[in-house]
Automatic annotation (TrEMBL):
Organism of origin: Brevibacterium iodinum ATCC 49514
Top-level taxon of the source organism: Bacteria
Protein name: Uncharacterized protein
Length: 230
């Protein structure tokens, strides 16, 4: 993959567990989740109006790899801006009566390949847990990304290195060739996956906990100021 200039400033990673009912690894459609997402319109409009917010990405989870300790959120918000946005997000949540998130973490983007935000396909949110230092896990992620680019044709990857590495040290935000099941099988059926990916992760005591999501069209959300269900 071709290196791209990292996105400056600070990312804020926000997640909600609204109704993450699954059938196997697939997250089922949910009226409660749809209602929650639709009522985020005024909340997101308020964030967009804040001059410190540069970009907002809203995602709905479609697939959760059934691994021990896997994330269980079904709605994700990824923002970036020149300053830390945790306080901005928390204030907007209070102002618009949005339910309390399960997680809010700040992160930087030390390494980037391609352009994830303009790529089309399933969105991968790969959460890494490890007791190793962030820099060490990030270096391992960079080696792994080379394998995904050359072997599976992944053209982009945006690493988020969390300021407080608990529960996650880093997150790989990427768009992958779909569909998701084919992508997962394509990697797992290759012997080089276990050497170049799993082997490198084991050396730094890291585990990957991937989920997949689809982008939500924010322009289609309701502009009504109704309060999201708690």
């Amino acid at each position: 993959m071709e290196p791209t200039e990292p996105i400056s400033g600070t990312f804020t990673y926000v997640t909600w567990e609204v109704d993450p009912v699954r059938r196997g690894p697939f997250v089922r459609k949910s009226a409660a989740r749809r209602q929650f997402i639709d009522t985020l319109g005024p909340f997101l409009a308020g964030l967009r109006a804040d001059p410190t917010v540069a970009h907002i990405r809203l995602l709905e989870t479609t697939f959760i790899a059934p691994l021990a300790g896997h994330p269980n959120h079904d709605v994700t918000l990824i923002l970036d801006g020149e300053d830390t946005l945790t306080g901005v997000v928390e204030a907007a949540i209070r102002d618009h009566g949005v339910r309390t998130p399960t997680l809010i973490q700040s992160a930087g983007n030390p390494i980037r390949f391609g352009n994830t935000d303009t790529s089309v396909g399933p969105v991968l949110l790969n959460h890494f847990v490890s007791a190793a230092p962030v820099d060490e896990v990030a270096a391992t992620w960079q080696q792994i990304s080379d394998w995904y680019g050359s072997v599976l044709g992944v053209s982009n990857s945006t690493l988020l290195a969390f300021e407080e590495p608990d529960p996650y040290v880093v997150l790989n935000y990427a768009v992958v060739p779909g569909p998701v099941v084919r992508f997962m099988l394509d990697q797992m059926l290759r012997p080089s996956f276990y050497r170049n990916v799993n082997g490198r992760l084991r050396r730094v005591g890291a585990r990957a906990l991937p989920i997949f999501a689809q982008r939500v069209d924010q322009q289609k959300l309701s502009s009504n100021s109704s309060v999201a269900p708690q």
